[in-house]
Design brief:
alpha/beta, five-stranded parallel beta sheet, seven-stranded mixed beta sheet
Length: 373
């Protein structure tokens, strides 16, 4: 009998490895962007960078999430930029499919629609900067600074470059929410430092009719021309105006892109133009050093993103991992609560405002500036 008891006790003290192994909690993250193959504002290179960044983030976060008891599951959905309602529809589907978080589009008009379709699912935009983003509440944040911050920086910087200027003109895409918002804020900030808007012109579409606008702008002969549009439209406008207004300084928002991605880069038509653009991201090599996953990916030297949006994907998924490992939510609902409490601190505009120069059709990093929210 004693031998039986001792034997049972010995068996009971042996580790039961199968029972101690817990199945990781599956965390679904949906990434939705205007990268349809038919979208003329994007390219296969954009899409490849997007998907590469997701895979790089997942590979480098796996060990950390394993220790915390989670497994990251991602789903991507692309839509055409000319059909923005798809952003809302795809967000609704992601929520129905059980997404814990939606990483939303770069453009503000797309992201605002996506947020409407996300229900109670939290979202983070890679680059949206329109003022309305701040009104969406704690469940929705952007990795970009607000237009208020960037437009203020653009006004101050443009005035410092052309000290003799007393006025400027703007050419804005009327069908771009963020572009219009940026132009309106720029006008207010420019007025504070002695710059007046002597002409506000609107264009529409990806290939706008510029004849009448160009004629009026040339007649005004401004020293500063604000073009807060996306790079494809901006490149067309600058190409027409630069030869006619050789001393003008062109000023852009974050829609101009960077040295690797965008339509201004290496565009022959803008080679003679000089300008500045403000962005919510420093060069990727610098930005990656500002958060843990970025540093880890840099050390590996493998599949390192080369664009701001690619870096933003890494930052967004790094933020997800941090929230999971710190708050340990056991459900989608618990994650939403944790996100509302911590997302502003972990994900909202982590890179500040950077100023870039447009030189010989290259967008070159100049400096980072401090601008209050």
């Amino acid at each position: 009998m004693k031998k039986l008891i001792v034997g049972l006790f010995f068996c009971a003290t042996l580790p039961v490895f199968g029972a101690q192994t817990k199945t990781p909690i599956q965390v679904r993250v949906d990434l939705i962007e205007a990268l349809s193959p038919t979208d003329t504002t994007s390219s296969l290179r954009f899409q490849n960078e997007f998907e590469l960044s997701i895979n790089t983030a997942k590979a480098n976060l796996k060990a950390k999430l394993d220790k915390c008891g989670y497994a990251l599951e991602t789903s991507t959905a692309f839509f055409d930029a000319t059909d923005p309602l798809q952003a809302k529809e795809k967000a609704e589907k992601a929520t129905t499919d059980g997404s814990w978080l939606i990483v939303g589009p770069r453009r503000s008009n797309h992201y605002l629609l996506l947020a409407k379709g996300s229900g109670k699912t939290p979202t983070v935009s890679l680059m949206a900067s329109a003022s309305e983003i701040g009104d969406l509440g704690p469940s929705h944040v952007s990795l970009s600074p607000s237009n208020a911050q960037m437009a203020r920086a653009a006004a101050i910087e443009s005035k410092s470059r052309v000290r003799s200027a007393t006025n400027y003109v703007s050419i804005t895409s009327e069908d771009c929410v963020s572009c219009v918002d940026f132009a309106q804020i720029f006008e207010k900030e420019a007025g504070k430092i002695g710059l007046k808007n002597s002409g506000n012109f609107s264009v529409k579409g990806e290939s706008p009719q510029l004849g009448g606008v160009v004629e009026k702008v040339v007649a005004l002969n401004p020293k500063i021309i604000l073009i807060p549009n996306y790079s494809k439209v901006a490149a067309q406008i600058i190409s027409v105006l630069a030869p006619k207004l050789k001393s003008a300084l062109f000023v852009g928002s974050d829609g101009w892109g960077d040295s690797n991605f965008g339509f201004l880069q290496n565009d022959v038509g803008v080679a003679s133009a000089k300008g500045i653009t403000v962005r919510g991201f420093p060069p990727v090599s610098k930005g990656l050093q500002l958060f843990p996953l970025g540093k880890a990916v840099t050390r590996t030297g493998k599949d390192v993103p080369t664009s701001g949006p690619g870096m933003a994907i890494l930052k967004s998924l790094d933020g997800v991992a941090e929230i999971l490992c710190e708050s340990r939510p056991a459900s989608k609902e618990a994650f939403s609560v944790a996100f509302e409490k911590t997302a502003k601190r972990k994900l909202s505009a982590p890179f500040g405002v950077s100023v870039y120069d447009l030189v010989s059709s290259n967008i070159v990093y100049e400096k980072k500036v401090s601008v209050k929210p």
